[in-house]
Specification:
Blueprint: H1 23-30, E1 43-53, E2 63-73, E3 82-87, E4 90-93, E5 104-110, E6 114-120, H2 125-137, E7 145-147, E8 153-157, E9 169-171, E10 179-183, E11 187-191, E12 194-195, H3 201-211, E13 220-226, E14 255-262, E15 268-269, H4 270-283, H5 297-318, E16 320-324, H6 325-340, H7 350-361, E17 365-369, E18 380-383, E19 386-389, H8 400-403, H9 410-430, H10 439-462, H11 468-492, H12 498-509
Antiparallel strand pairs: 1-2, 2-3, 2-4, 3-12, 4-6, 5-6, 7-8, 8-13, 9-10, 10-11, 11-14, 13-14, 15-18, 16-17, 18-19
Helix pairs in contact: 4-9, 5-10, 6-7, 6-11, 7-11, 9-10, 9-11, 11-12
Length: 510
């Protein structure tokens, strides 16, 4: 993507001007955040685009101003520059605000307004209330949309729900790659930090599942997107220099900035529940997994049923198509080749893995559809109404165009099975120093817990024994996922690489 604006470029409107902003202030702040994906990489802030004031905040404090910040990295393969675009809404005050000290970004002189103190707006309940008020007051009807003429921000709202404009905003502390603000105990707004032009899968999938009445997701209430109000040019052409090049051409793709959805206030993280179940098992030395009070098998089965229903709705809403299994196997084989350079122990299993991919290629064509794309226990919530599946963005590291492509539902199944493998290993490793003598017993019990829950999940999802084709698909996707895990663990937690390597060894033995 071309720069959203040179930091020194002029603008046609003072409310949109970024010429007075110091790029280093943004660079210094980004590296401190949890959601910045470029930690450890060398980058420069190559562009800042001020979108303007969030509706209803320009004339009173706090002033809330949204920014697109482009970063350029110099460590991309082949020496080519790589860019990323981040969304950074700021709340501006004339005087310091002590309660926001932890979110302070910098201070500077705003043209025509004097000196201001700038804070990350997501931490400011008064700033975030403006977003909610706009959803409630500006969108004329549920199921409609409203475009702010000053900024080009478009607020969409889905039908069938009520919003409380006076709900107190609070930043959710558990977010990683994005930022989520809770509005009371009924609604939550996820603001996407790293942006790519085009339809965000998280919004597209939630809209389809909400429209279909699915019980297994948080209902979508609305979303915010942006396209330049001054011409048919995107963020890389802030002054509209190329808007007249093709006046009849297609509009620039939108940037989807945030989504508003139901807050699952009774939800408990599926990963946390699984870890608690493992701890219960490890604490009962004389009992098997099915005899422990915290047995997870029933929940695993219900989760399998929920995923099957979600896949069914997605197939109905988005349709199914055919994909060449050979090209899929080729991509998996290439990922293996790349991984071998990073994880030398993989070489012992390379022939077995390639054989699994060859069996996949032998299927000819396979049925594909819209899927979750990055499913694991941490992407699930157990609520009083059953299991809910969250975060349909897909793997954040993959390009948006790839995440939008249909895939086999067995990718999601494989991701969940790998998560069932990881849960007991994580608990076991946390007890290694405390009780080293019990390591062998914990390893045995970890295997028991994992196999029991994988079996219940898989049987519930498939509705019975797997067909030979399903087994080939599942083995290939598990192998592909485990290969990815070996690279991740080698780079981040080298002592953990035995977890995916053990799974890979099982594929060879089956």
């Amino acid at each position: 993507m071309t720069p959203p604006s040179s930091p020194s470029s002029p603008s046609s409107s003072s409310s949109h001007s970024s010429a007075h902003l110091d790029p280093q202030i943004f660079a210094d702040y980004l590296v401190k955040t949890r959601w910045f994906a470029g930690k450890g990489r060398s980058f420069t802030v190559s562009g800042i685009r001020r979108l303007g004031d969030v509706p209803g905040t320009g004339e009173v404090e706090p002033r809330v101003v949204n920014h697109l910040v482009e970063l350029t990295y110099d460590d991309a393969p082949g020496g080519e520059a790589a860019t990323e675009l981040y969304q950074v809404p700021l709340t501006l005050y004339a005087e310091p605000v002590e309660r926001l000290d932890h979110a302070f970004i910098g201070w500077w002189e705003e043209p025509g307004r004097g000196w201001v103190h700038a804070y990350d707006a997501l931490h400011d309940r008064d700033a975030m209330a403006a977003w909610l008020r706009t959803f409630v007051d500006a969108v004329p009807v549920e199921g409609g949309e409203w475009t702010d003429p000053a900024t080009g921000l478009v607020f969409h709202r889905t039908p069938g729900h009520d919003l409380d404009p006076h709900a107190t905003a609070a930043l959710f502390s558990g977010e990683q790659s994005n930022s989520t603000v809770l509005f009371g105990d009924h609604a939550a707004m996820k603001l996407f930090r790293k942006l790519t032009p085009g339809a965000n899968p998280d919004i597209a999938v939630h809209e389809a599942l909400t429209r279909a009445g699915s019980d297994h997701v948080a209902a979508l209430y609305g979303w915010v997107e942006w396209s330049d109000p001054e011409g048919q040019h995107g963020a890389g052409d802030p002054e509209g220099e190329h808007a007249a090049d093709d006046p009849g051409g297609p509009e620039a793709p939108v940037l989807q900035l945030a989504m508003l959805q139901q807050f699952l206030r009774t939800g408990t993280d599926g990963w946390d529940l699984a870890l608690a179940s493992v701890r219960d098992l490890f604490a009962e030395a004389d009992l098997h997994a099915e005899e422990v009070g915290g047995d997870f098998a029933g929940e695993a089965a219900r989760l399998g049923e929920s995923l099957r229903e979600v896949h069914g709705v997605l197939a109905t809403q988005f349709g199914r198509s055919q994909r060449d299994a050979g090209s899929l196997a080729e991509a998996m084989t290439q990922r293996l080749s790349d991984a071998l350079a990073v994880v030398p122990p993989l070489e012992a299993y390379a022939e077995t893995l390639r054989a699994a991919y060859d069996r996949l290629a032998g299927l000819g064509t396979i049925e594909v559809q819209r899927v979750h794309g990055d499913l694991h226990l941490g992407q699930t919530l157990r609520t009083s109404g059953g299991w809910k599946i969250v975060d349909f963005e897909g793997e954040p590291a993959r390009p948006l165009a790839e995440r939008q492509l249909p895939d086999s539902p067995w990718r999601d199944v494989a991701g969940m099975l790998r998560s069932f493998d990881y849960a007991p290993q994580v608990v076991g490793r946390s007890l290694a120093e405390e009780d080293p003598e019990g390591a062998a017993q914990r390893a045995y019990r970890a295997e028991e817990w994992s196999e029991r829950n994988k079996e219940h999940f898989l049987q519930a999802y498939a509705g019975g024994p797997l067909t030979p084709e399903q087994r080939v698909l599942l083995d290939a996707y598990i192998a592909d996922k485990a290969v990815y895990e070996t690279v991740y663990e080698t780079r981040n937690r080298p002592s953990w690489v035995t977890i995916p390597l053990t799974a890979i060894a099982r594929i060879g033995a089956s």
